[in-house]
Amino acid sequence: MYRMLKRSCDIVGAIILLCIFSPVMAVVALLIRIKLGSPILFKQQRPGLAERPFEIYKFRTMAVLYGPDGELLSDECRYSKFGGVIRRLSLDELPQFLNVLKGDMSLIGPRPLLMRYTPYYSERERLRFTVRPGVTGLAQVSGRNKLSWNDRLSLDVTYVEQLSFQQDFRILWKTVQKVVRQEDVVENPSLHDLPLDAHRLQLQAREGSV
């Protein structure tokens, strides 16, 4: 019953939020076109419910720059101050309301991470894939990118184990507070922590050397 009602709330909520934020999204899209050029949207495959891949939508916040070998440069090299402002205000996440409307995501749930991280979750951490990924979630209102990977993933599992509308409402309210106060935002996550796959491989290497 909870999951059925949650999906209905997601659809209604996404429609309302898209109506409210459509003028803001139009302005952001125009600014990205002027500042960073095309494309305006960043699209990438992420694992969703039952680990099924879907294409996530975000406003692009990084420049498209290639090295002499034709490979895309690192996030650190492509970082822009304008994109940092968009991230700090969480405006880059607004297109994900379209993902919610399509059924790829929920308003509340574990954040969808990169496809390449899939082999590096523990069995307990894979519980995050038993619900739709969210635009915001328990980990996001508890510290976001400033948390360690173990803490973030543990909070994702806690969310799944304690599914309830009360929990969703608390997360939604805390999200509004965090966005307004611009708390726990890391404008360039690549400078803050290792990617999950690199972190877990590093940990395995340390354990193997003991």
Query: How are helices and strands ordered from N to C?
Result: HEEHHHEEHHH
The class by helix and strand makeup works out as: mainly alpha
Report the oligomer: single chain
Low-confidence stretches: none
What features would you describe in this structure?
- It is a single chain.
- With 210 residues, the chain is mainly alpha-helical.
- It is 46% helix and 10% strand.
- The protein has seven helices and four strands; from the N terminus they run αββαααββααα.
- The strands form two sheets. The chain has a two-stranded antiparallel ribbon. A two-stranded parallel sheet has the order 3-4.
- The mean pLDDT is 90.
Question: Which characteristics define this entry?
Answer:
single chain, 210 residues, mainly alpha, two-stranded antiparallel sheet, two-stranded parallel ribbon, 7 helices, 10% strand, globular
What is the fold's blueprint, element by element?
Blueprint: H1 2-35, E1 41-47, E2 53-59, H2 75-78, H3 81-88, H4 96-102, E3 106-108, E4 134-136, H5 149-161, H6 165-181, H7 196-209
Parallel strand pairs: 3-4
Antiparallel strand pairs: 1-2
Helix pairs in contact: 1-4
Summarize the entry for a quick read:
This protein has 210 residues and is mainly alpha-helical.
